[in-house]
Every structure is written in C-alpha cells, then in structure tokens.
Design goal:
Blueprint: E1 19-23, H1 28-40, E2 43-48, H2 56-65, E3 70-74, E4 93-96, H3 108-128, E5 134-138, E6 153-154, H4 162-169, H5 175-178, H6 181-201, E7 206-212, E8 214-216, H7 229-238, E9 251-255, H8 256-267, E10 275-278, E11 281-283, H9 285-295, E12 313-314, H10 318-326, H11 335-347
Parallel strand pairs: 1-2, 1-4, 2-3, 4-5, 5-7, 6-12, 7-10, 8-9
Antiparallel strand pairs: 9-11
Helix pairs in contact: 1-2, 1-8, 3-6, 4-6, 7-11, 8-10, 9-11
C-alpha cells in the first residue's frame, strides 16, 4: 500500500521545485520528512547540529533523489541569536522537527526555556523572510495526553497534557515515579508557547502542528541513525533490554513515512491553526511480538512478554487521514507493514 506515489489532489499552495527547510534532518522523523518532500518534487535544505558527522545525509538523498535536490547546513546552537537567519533565506516552507530529544529530563523549566528560545528564534526568522508561506511544527501526541491502557480517554484538538505537567511539578514524586512525565510536560508547554507566539505575532504564513504518537517504520540509514523507537522493536527481536516497554506503554502508532507525508500535505494547507494527530491505529508490544513471530517463524528464541494491555483512547483520525488522501495515499500504513519494514531495516545494518 505504501508504494502509492505522492499525487496532489489539488495544485499545491507551495509550487513544486520550491525550497523547504527541515530542521533536525538527521533524526528518524526528520529524515523521512526530507525523503517525502524530495519525493513530492521539492528541494530541501536540512539542518543538523554537526554537518561533518551527518555528511552521510547528502550521500543518502543523492542516491535516492539525485544530485542538487538536498542541501545540508549546520546549526550547532538552535537557540543562539541569529541562528536561523541564514537557514530560512529563500525557503517557501518550514518543517520544524528538531527539539528536546532527551526522554528523561531532570530540569523541566530549563528544557522548556531552551526549546522556546530556539523555536521563537526560528519563528522570528521565518516571519522576517517574505518567501515563507507555511510553517509546520512538530509536537507530540504526548502533548495532548498521557497514554494509559487502563484508562478510557477521549482526545480532541483542545486536549493538553495537564496531567504530565502536574506530575512533573509535584515535589512529592520521585524521579522514578515521574517517569517520562517531565518529557511530556516539556512537549506540552513548548507547543503551547508556539501557539501563543502565533496569536501574538500574527505571521503571514500558515502555522499548523503535527503530533505523532509512537513512530514505527523503517530507518533510512540504519548504519548512521540512532535506533529511536526501532530500538525497542529490535530488542524484542533480539531479546535485549525490554525496560522501555514499561515506559512506552500500549497506545497509538504511526508509520514514519505517513508522518513524512503529513508534513507534505500540511505545508500546503490554506488554513492555519490545525493540530494534526499522527495516530494510525492502536498497538501493543504483544502485538508487535506476534507480528515478528509471523515474519520470522524460523526464529525460536523470542522472549515472551507480559500482557501490556490495549489502549482505550479515542482520538481524531479524520483530519490526518484527509491530509494523507490529499497527497495520494488512501489509508494509513498498517502496523504489520510498518513492523516488517522496520525489522528489515535494522537487520540490514
């Protein structure tokens, strides 16, 4: 199913061939954002903190999309004054992916302050660049709710993860009890701050947010990219450390390629103010194990898992599915296909 080409249902707002900025181009999500934008017919300028360490990106995208379509530039300090003045020059759209990457955070206020400074710098630079027509911000589904398989929950565009903020700020909870609540709190507060900037500054460009949940799917360059969620699936396959299964509980998933296509579609929205959940369907690690067993029946040493339950969250899938269809993809990539392609990518390294 995923082999469907990118085909716009309507002429795109940003003409094909235009230059798009993608921050954090070396990560799992960022690299697929670049890949899908190039596949759609755009040129891409990707930013990384260290260009020398990420030179493999230029080779990767030249091999996949030809010469002259991808440009790599270095932004070592995302929050430095003027850090984004040069990267935004001449770009028609911005996909902002880079941000807080540490899952376990000791100082929430410091992390929020650093991220807001970086994002406000990027937004200010975008506002000053007349060519920018669209800005797509990457948040997280965790900015809207805390997944809990034991609690039925309804999530809407207006949902915010107040629970995570309360937990992160509770002086009576230990770091172990807080878990990843501080990370969720940072994601929540930073997204809220960006919306406040939009309300205050009223930029000429459209501003919309993508909120992916647990990201599955293939790693474009498994020899050079960190494992991310793929590391959990890899450990289930190989019988490695499974402690992350208690942290990333049963919830919704999205294939990273679908996320990339959401960026392509969201860049071309005529409306502003959308929060688009990247939620294709529910998953559990037990289901992931079952899929791996069916894919590799010759492997007899899979470690059986405890029952991790099944998510009971209802969230909005109509809006993101409409965006996928606007770029020629009728349905979400299935969990089975996503795990298959993910496993093949890490086994090829």
């Amino acid at each position: 199913m995923f082999n469907s080409p990118i085909k716009f249902a309507q002429p795109p707002k940003i003409p094909l061939g235009s230059l798009i900025l993608v921050t954090g181009a070396n990560g799992l999500i960022g690299s697929h954002a670049v890949d899908q934008l190039l596949a759609a017919g755009y040129r891409v300028r990707g930013t990384v903190r260290n260009k020398q360490r990420c030179a493999w990106l230029e080779l990767l995208f030249e091999a996949r999309h030809g010469k002259g379509q991808f440009e790599l530039i270095e932004v070592p300090d995302l929050a430095a004054p003027g850090a984004w003045d040069v990267p935004v020059q001449g770009v028609a759209g911005i996909v902002s992916v880079a941000g807080c990457a540490q899952l376990f955070i000791e100082d929430v206020d410091k992390a929020v302050e650093e991220d807001i400074k970086a994002f406000y710098g990027l937004l200010d630079a975008a506002k000053a660049e007349p060519a920018v027509k669209s800005f797509v911000f990457t948040s997280s589904a965790w900015a809207a709710w805390t997944p809990d398989p034991n609690v039925p929950t309804t999530v809407t565009d207006e949902s915010w993860n107040d629970k995570a903020i309360l937990m992160a700020e509770d002086p009576n909870l230990s770091d172990q009890e807080k878990g990843i609540a501080p990370f969720m709190a940072v994601k929540t507060k930073v997204e809220q701050a960006c919306w406040r900037w939009v309300e205050r500054e009223k930029p000429a460009f459209t501003f919309n947010a993508i909120l992916p949940d647990t990201v599955m799917g293939p790693i474009l360059d498994p020899k050079n990219q960190s494992a991310s969620t793929a590391g959990i699936v890899r450990n289930i396959y190989r019988g490695g450390n499974l402690g992350a299964l208690d942290v990333v509980v049963s919830q919704w998933f999205v294939d990273v390629r679908d996320t990339g296509r959401l960026y392509v579609a969201a860049l071309n929205l005529d409306v502003t103010g959308w929060r688009v959940f990247g939620c294709a369907g529910r998953f559990s690690w037990n289901k992931v194990l079952d899929i791996l067993k069916s894919l590799y029946p010759e492997k007899k040493d899979f470690v059986e898992l405890a029952d991790y339950g099944w998510d009971q969250t209802d969230t909005q899938t109509e809006k993101p599915l409409a965006l996928l269809r606007a770029v020629g993809q009728e349905e979400w990539t299935s969990l089975e296909q996503s795990i298959k392609d993910l496993a093949e990518s890490f086994l090829s390294a």
